[in-house]
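User: For my dataset I need records formatted as: sequence, then structure tokens, nothing else. Please produce one.
Assistant:
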Amino acid sequence: MATEALKSTAVTNADATPIVKSSQLELGGSVRAAFATLEAAGGDAGSTYRFIRLPARARVTRVEYASDDQGIGATLNVGLYDVEDEAVEDADFFASALDVATAAVARTDITYESAIIAAENAGKALWEQLGLADNVDNKSKEFDIYVTSAGAAITGTVSLWVEYVLPE
């Protein structure tokens, strides 16, 4: 097998003469972080808990989750809720069937737990990852990151941390 010396598109573009402007993610943006916590009070399985609102143009770089032991049989999905349409966009976009029944969960990265986000799409805006049309309406849309209890009711503290980039 031969040795490779490869460059990403960002490095190739930076080496070009003249320099070629790359995508907005490669050009930068404002890195932001959000945190939210709530106390689930034993709602039935299927209950939803909305945590953090993001614009559709956000490029999510990290989602972390922590919780108390939520009780026997409890699992959680972490997804996106369309604020404007008042509807679930993708129930397990970030995480699917997280086991929260056996013990408290320490702060854990769940950004790609569900494997819905393909590696080549990780740097794209939410609207792009969701396959929405490239128009102003979708770029101004907002989504709540939310948790759905599955399998059983949950009771206790649930927290989410989100890091994201807003393009300049």
